[in-house]
Amino acid sequence: MTTTLVKETSPPAAAGAGTIRRPRRRGRVVALLFALPALLLLGALVVYPVLFSVGRSFFDASGTRFVGGENYAEMFRDPATLKAIRNTAVWVVVAPTLLTGLGLILAVLVEKVRWATAFKLLLFMPMAVSFLAAGIIFRLAYDEDPDKGVLNAAVVAVHDAFEGTSSYPTARARDGQGLTKEADGSYRTAAGVSPGDTVALGLVGVQPKDLPAGAEPAYGAAARTAGPGELRGVVYLDFTPGGGGEQGVVDRRESGLPEMRVEAVRDGRAVVSTTTASDGSFRFADLADGSYTVRLPAANFAPPYEGVSWLGPTLVTPAIIGAYLWIWTGFAMVLIGAGLSTLPRDALEAARMDGANEWQIFRRITVPLLAPVLTVVFVTLVINVMKVFDLVYIIAPGPVQEDATVLATQMWLVSFGGGNNQGLGSALGVLLLLLVIPAMVFNVRRFRRSQR
Q1: How far apart are the C-alpha atoms of 149 and 391, rounded to whole Å?
Q2: How far apart are CA 63 and CA 4, in angstroms?
Q3: DSSP readout, 96-152?
Q4: Of the given ranges (11-15, 95-99, 230-234, 241-245), which has the lowest mean pLDDT?
Q5: 336 φ, ψ to 5°?
Q6: pLDDT score recorded for residue 394
Q7: Phi and psi (nearest 5°) for 142?
Q8: What backbone torsions phi and psi does residue 156 show, to the nearest 5 degrees?
Q9: Domain-by-domain residue ranges, the chain?
Q10: Cβ-based burial of 153 (10 A; exposed 0-12, middle 13-18, buried ≥19)
Q11: Separation of alpha carbons 93 and 87, rounded Å
């Protein structure tokens, strides 16, 4: 028997490495082919516009003459741009802070609500509304006319409930009919009166349909005579419906003006006051002898309270921030609530066992443990508010557009909204990009750190 020994040989190491590299290389090529459409889209919609804007910012308005950094210098010389930078700073400081705080408070409180899911859904629903629709909604809500703006309707209702309102804002006295107008808007009798006299104070400028309900004819009240120590009178509408009548005389069909404040004045001081009855009559009893002046205070003729000018130069930015809070509070609440659900319950229970109250648990345990989530929410909102455009452009009326402008709206106005200076507009866009990039880098690093 012959035994043959066969020597085993191993393949060259280089050949084995090449065999392994080929599938890897093929996998990278396949992955690149799948990612290529997205990369092309990203380049066309993001990279190219950024590079083009950077290049365009060094040219003049027409784009034909190179001006270097002139557009960047012009940015900080233009008052409108400086106001946009200031308003953007207000947005960055106020809106994310309020949203993060509201989101944290609501997330903690919702955990204790029985219908927590329905409550979260209700608060998150504004996120489904576009900024355009939300802007239109709040433009109507902030309308200064109480008959249109719901906020001013509520403000006027509360004001009138406590302060009252004048029933005769348009009333006035005829010239030469015995009443003199004072500098403060009140009316007084031109001649002095004494106890035992009866005075008739005629006013015009009130539409019969605007008279208070229950107003009665003043003729009977004018016919009454005053007793000893008594001063009587009537305040009436010196106008006869359908025409006719005599000026300065109370006719049978002329109405009294009820609820009118009347004062008896002596030596410049109101001695006594009263309110007219439904027929416009008033009566001062037990007056001391002497000469008096009958006065109708200015409050009788004060214009009605119209509410707050929400979209005026002073309040337009806070009003728009309020609309922004309405939209994004649900977003902050849901993200913080997700972080809250991952907190170790044993730490909270241990604190309760040690006698800590809910406020101490919230301040010393919940907030510190949620710090990473709160930071991410805050930085995300900072990035978002730097780019806010729709709400500012839609809610702010034309006359106060400059008072509410932020960098995004200023960039659009300078480039396309009448300025037609796309060089300066591109410089504003580059400035906005430079402000957003640090926040984006910070957020990306935090995400990577949390994944590790």
Answers
A1: 17
A2: 87
A3: HHHHHHHHHHHHHHHTT-TTHHHHHHHHHGGGGS-HHHHHHHHHHHT-SSTTT-HHH
A4: 11-15
A5: -70, -35
A6: 93
A7: -90, 5
A8: -65, -40
A9: 70-154+310-451, 179-301
A10: middle
A11: 10
| Residue found by looking up tokens 């009893």 in the block | 285
The CATH class that applies to domain 70-154+310-451 reads mainly alpha
SS3 66: strand
Q: Is 43 helix (H, G, I), strand (E, B) or coil?
A: helix
378 close to 95: Cβ distance less than 8 angstroms: no
Give the distance from CA 327 to its chain's centroid: 12
How far from the centroid of its chain's Cα atoms is residue 295's Cα?
Answer: 42
Q: 236-262 burial, b if ≥16 CB within 10 A, otherwise e?
A: bbbbbeeeebeeeebbeebbbbbbbbb
Amino acid (one-letter) located at 167: S
Q: How many CB atoms lie within 10 A of CB 334?
A: 19
Helix (H, G, I), strand (E, B) or coil at 209: helix
Q: Which of 364, 361, 343, 344 minimizes the C-alpha distance to 352?
A: 361
- The H-or-E segment that residue 41 falls in is helix 13-42
**Is 59 strand, coil or helix?**
strand
Number of H helices, E strands in the chain: 17, 8
**CA 28 to CA 33: how far, in whole Å?**
9
Q: What is the pLDDT of residues 395-435, one digit of tens each?
A: 998 888 889 999 999 999 888 877 788 888 899 989 888 88
Short-list 320, 451, 439, 449, CA closest to 377 = 439
User: Which residue in 203, 268, 269, 270 sits closest to 233, CA to CA?
Assistant: 203
Note whether 166 and 303 are within 8 A (CB).
yes
**What digits encode the pLDDT tens for the residues 329-356?**
999 998 998 888 888 888 878 888 888 8
The token pair at 92 is 């960055």
Fold of 179-301: Immunoglobulin-like (2.60.40)
Element spanning 232, H or E: strand 231-237
Helix/strand/coil for 347: helix
CB–CB of 447/95 below 8 Å? no
Nearest to 292 by CA among 269, 259, 261: 269
Sign of CA dihedral 392, 395, 397, 403: negative
Assigned token pair, 149: 């703006």
The terminus-to-terminus CA distance of the chain in angstroms comes to 66
Crossing angle for the helix pair 316-341 and 131-141, to the nearest 10 degrees: 130
